[in-house]
Amino acid sequence: MKLKYLDELNKERIDIAKRYLNEVDNPKIILPKILDKAMPIWHLFVVRVKDRAGFINDLNECNIGSVIHYPIPPHLSQAYEYLGYKEGDYPITESYANEVVSLPIYNGMTREEVDYAIKCLNKY
């Protein structure tokens, strides 16, 4: 049962996220902003980039996995179709949906893997 290790598992992802936040230094990558009193546990680590296809291609060349978890803005999803929203109703949300990419962050990710990911992110 993993529940008894929950704090330890959360800390592991928090430490990886802190490294991304402190060591990724690339103006083409928009890192998440965290409110002062917030304490995220980082189930996902989502960044934004203007050229998502190019970014993902570069990550693939470095053998770094990435995922687009939410490619469709909520208001344009089938679940909310009955509300009658159309493309252009929420332009900022639509822009973000075209820019978001989830980076690797998982329990068991080694220091060397994080180092390598950061190196590739900074080279992009």
Structure keywords:
single chain; 124 residues; mainly alpha; Aspartate Aminotransferase, domain 1; two-stranded antiparallel sheet; 2 strands; pyridoxal phosphate binding; transferase; PyrdxlP-dep_Trfase_small
Description of the structure:
With 124 residues, the protein is mostly helical. It has one domain: Aspartate Aminotransferase, domain 1 (Alpha-Beta Complex). The chain is built from four helices and two strands. The protein has helices at residues 6-23, 52-61, 91-97, 111-123, and strands at residues 45-48, 100-103. The longest helix is centred in the first third of the chain and has 18 residues, at 6-23. The N and C termini lie far apart (39 Å). The mean pLDDT is 97.
Helices and strands in order, then pairings?
Blueprint (H helix, E strand, L loop, with lengths): L5 H18 L21 E4 L3 H10 L29 H7 L2 E4 L7 H13 L1
Antiparallel strand pairs: 1-2
